TrEMBL record:
Family: Belongs to the AAA ATPase family.
A Gene Ontology molecular function term of the record: ATP hydrolysis activity
Record keywords: ATP-binding, Chaperone, Coiled coil, Cytoplasm, Hydrolase, Nucleotide-binding, Proteasome
GO cellular component: cytoplasm; proteasome complex
Enzyme Commission no: 3.6.4.3
Protein name, UniProt field: 26S proteasome subunit P45 family
Subcellular location(s) per record: Cytoplasm
Main location class: cytoplasm
First and last residues shown, out of full length: 139 to 408 of 410
Top enzyme class: hydrolase
Domain of life from the UniProt record: Archaea
Species lineage: Archaea, Methanobacteriati, Methanobacteriota, Stenosarchaea group, Methanomicrobia
Organism of this sequence: Methanosalsum zhilinae (strain DSM 4017 / NBRC 107636 / OCM 62 / WeN5) (Methanohalophilus zhilinae)
Domain (AAA+ ATPase): residue spans on this chain: 50-189
């Protein structure tokens, strides 16, 4: 069970230059999570307690997981991912024990970054209707709070939690002392989108006419993950016609395709 619930990567191999459009956010996470691991004396000298972890929130596909992996890579820390929704959906009755196991694993493999994805699945508002399902989720949540409260801030395990739905989180999780920083990872702005497109096309043979600024203008509302799909689709168009380089026209077609799929899913209420 342990192996299924966790993803453990010794060295995720993600660099900061693989993340676009997150500017100050990345600096904040580096300061709160990476520095305490790589330079704990800095905190000692100033006389401040290092943060135990941060909560990242924002739309899906904006790079929360990517940031956590990059921090682990840079700090030479083990990356351990636990999914909140797996915890409550796939392992009913075992949630609390698994939370304990994951925190133990993080200590055993330290220095480590414990990434708790979709924390809202466990840490959603606690219900008081006493149904078995929610009582089980409550137990899992209480175990999570207990683990976090017992955390040694000077130790070499740090927590990064992520959610798309901060509005659903139990206020207990947001209380000061649990997450030192609560940081929004928003959808990228125009220049961020241009940066992300450049990152994902780094290894592509590009036509001279490719205009990233124009593509960034046309992709308002797209996440980093959406832009990655656009790049891949554009590449597939070229592959299909056995072309040699990806031109502006291929990118434009890929953007249109994404937009019409988006509209379709809105119409179908998906
Ligand atoms: P979710 O909330 O759905 O788990 P997430 O915010 O954790 O999403 P990621 O899993 O980090 O998003 O993003 C998915 C993929 O999209 C990444 O592996 C990366 O390839 C691409 N991507 C997302 N955001 C960025 C970004 N800011 N810069 C570059 N690539 C990005």
């Amino acid at each position: 069970v342990r192996a299924q619930i966790m993803e453990v990567i010794t060295s995720p191999g993600v660099n900061y230059d693989m993340i676009g459009g997150v500017g100050d956010i990345l600096l904040e996470v580096i300061e709160s999570v990476e520095l305490p691991l790589t330079d704990p004396d800095l905190f000692k000298k100033i006389g401040i307690e290092p943060p135990t972890g941060v909560l990242l929130y924002g739309a899906p596909g904006t790079g929360k997981t990517l940031i956590a992996k990059a921090i682990a890579s840079q700090a030479n820390a083990t990356f351990i991912r636990m999914s909140g929704s797996d915890l409550v959906q796939k392992f009913v009755g075992e949630g609390a024990r698994l939370v304990r196991d994951v925190f133990q694993m993080a200590r055993d493999k330290s220095p480590s970054i414990l990434f708790i994805d979709e924390i809202d699945a466990v840490g959603g508002m606690r219900t008081h209707d006493g149904t078995t399902g929610s009582a089980e989720v409550n137990r899992t949540m209480l175990q999570l709070l207990a683990e976090m409260d017992g955390f040694d801030p000077t130790g070499d395990v740090k927590i990064i939690a992520a959610t798309n739905r901060i509005d659903l989180l139990d206020p207990a999780l947001l209380r000061p002392g649990r997450f030192d920083r609560i940081i929004e990872v928003p959808l990228p702005d125009e220049s961020g989108r241009s940066d992300i497109l450049k990152i994902h096309t780094r290894h592509m043979s590009l036509g001279d006419d490719v205009d990233f600024d124009r593509l960034a203008k046309l992709t308002d509302g797209f996440s980093g993950a959406d832009l990655k799909v656009v790049v891949k689709e554009a590449g597939m168009f070229v592959l299909r016609k056995r072309g040699e380089e990806v031109t502006m026209d291929d990118f434009l077609k890929a953007v249109d395709k994404m937009k019409s799929e988006e509209e379709l899913s809105v119409v179908q209420g998906m």
